[in-house]
Amino acid sequence: MLNRTAENVARATPEPLARKVRGISDKGLAWLFISPTILLLLAINIFPLFWAIYLSFTNFRANRPNEVVKNLGLANYQRILGDQDIWIAMQTTAHFVFWTILLQTLIGFTLAWLIDRKFRGHAFWTTIILVPMMLSPAVVGNFWRFLYEPQIGLFSYAVSFVTRIPPTDIQMLSNVSLAPWSIIIVDTWMWTPYVMLICLAGLRSIPEYIYEAAEVDRASNWRQFWSITLPMALPFIMLAVLFRGIENFKMFDMVTLLTGGGPGSTTEVASITLKRQAFESWRTGYSSAFAIILFVAVFGLANIYVKALNKVKQR
Amino acid sequence: MKSSLKLALGLTSAITASTAVSNVAHAEDLTLCWAAWDPANALVELSKDFTKETGIGMKFEFVPWTNYADRFLNELNSHGKLCDLIIGDSQWIGGSAENGHYVKLNDFFDKEKISMDDFVPATVVGYSEWPKNTPNYWALPAMGDVVGWTYRKDWFSKPELQKEFKEKYGWDLGPPTTFDQLKQIAEFFQKREIDGKTVYGASIYTERGSEGITMGAMDVLYSFGFQYENPKKPYEMEGFVNSEKSVKGLEFYKALYDCCTPPGASNSYMGEGVDAFKSGQVAMHMNFAFTWPGLQKDENVGGDKIGYFVNPKGPDGDQFAQLGGQGISVVSYSDKQESALKYIKWFANKDVQAKWWSLGGYSCLNAVVKDPAFPASQPYAQTFLDSMAIVKDFWAEPSYAPLLQASQKRFHDYVVAGQGSSKDALDGLVKDWTQVFQDDGKM
Questions:
Q1: Which residue of B156, B199, B408, B419 is 20 to 30 Å from B141, comparing CA positions?
Q2: A261 touches chain B (CB under 8 A)
Q3: What integer is the mean pLDDT of A18-42?
């Protein structure tokens, strides 16, 4: 029956096209379909990557195309690794990534766990919690800048109401100690729902019968959480951490909108330093080397992390 | 039937012909690139006369100041054809000349009898020449600008405040002539209640992202004795950039920031300064002169309530001000250079320059600014003239961008974030600038 249908289809196919298709193997056909995507990837991902690797060994400057390009060997890499400002930017990035991930995971998982209780109106609250994630970072950045404003900002007034410190003394974006936290607060506010959503998927994937068996064995709620909920949701939590980690390692928009890297260089994360070197100082070769170092760091860390994730999944 | 056919054919031909004519007209349209600010609106108005005279249409590409350099330097570096004419910042002149972005205008000036002697000398050096102080012209001075100050004349003239000020400081409250006086006034007004509102001393430049804090700090440093290099040995910066006088100047700027600015003013530039002054937050306001026509017209703080003063003197009596402003250049990648040059020729005309000033642009033509009626033409005209006579500018080297970025970082780290000392900041600056010039093979 199936063969007869196939024959009918083949007969119905116009002759020239049928002949052509008949002449190509399945593998050839597969290549034919994926080749446009591969060509596009080569053009916009792979070629620029190799080009950046080449440039990282030169003194090329994009704003001086007529100048002779000199090969500098590893000089750019040596200079970057010995540059104190670069290390400070890396530390700032690490600080930012660590605290945002910690807070987002803790709050996100707690929210997911609460939403999973399926109380009355939980669908409504889920939607409300997801709102910050749906906003554009440009909107969020500008919106929070006004909230943080010491003279008219609601945030400053709210903190002042609780602490009794005058609002004009609460300078979230101007104070060296508070500025990094102002960005961490906004990023946590915006992206915790995303972590919550992934954790919720993890919690919903745990079969109900496991809890029923635990109930039969008279396991306490606490024991159920530690022995069933957390281990089974862990791969999802780790996935959320991976996504947010990669995303926050290259954080740019929120920092630019809120502090522009200031006060001083207090909130200058690696991506801002890179942008300044590449598109303000026009040190293309130098910034290419920096970009390669960042790429290798993220790629290496992500690989180690994925291996750990796979181990957790296999348990 | 025949007549209707003829009519239809006639109409079709007419429509085709008019479309062709309009296409030709569009092909001749010039695009002028500049920053999005009040003078740009004045230029749009002014340029209507050019279109009327020549039939060449004008299109404008205006970009906010914070993205102005990024956007247009990218355009020039990629040899883009978007801009036929560009009003580029004064510091771009070196890079744009050496990298071939601008058309050299010497032959054109000779042919059209446009003499650079007819323009304010500081603007010719600042906006047109590269190398500096040589007769190689890459732009026509278009918009004179300089950092100066505005103050709340109405607050300064309150008898109770004048009395209290005199008792406290021993001199009459009025526009300051030295930086010490400026700081005393700023301290006097800081967190003072005026008309039921808390006000602050001064708004100064502290912006980190583009050029703000450098423009502000340099505006003070020059008068304290800062020099970019040894006048006898170019690019020798040790002992000049980080001289004792420079260190004191930067310390003063930080002290002014710490004592007398509104809360949260850690990233403030032209727009934020105007907002602070317009909203009645500050007694004094550092800003480029281009903001003055708008402030003068403001209902709340303009008219009789506003006064203007030249950048004050430093401790040794030196008095300089940071140059702003731009020249207009023809982009070498444009296909419409001939029409673009026609615009430059038209713009250099005395009547056009006079109208430019009347619309809110700052003319650099001697015939306009040296006219006996000029000082009285606007309340800020004399301050503008006095300020233009004492200007200094930042490096205009092809590597101005990394030089600027280094000063932005060093100044902001010290002044706003309070990291290290003034000496550390300036020593670091010498190190950074030396590295840039070494990379360029100039040292």
A1: B408
A2: yes
A3: 84
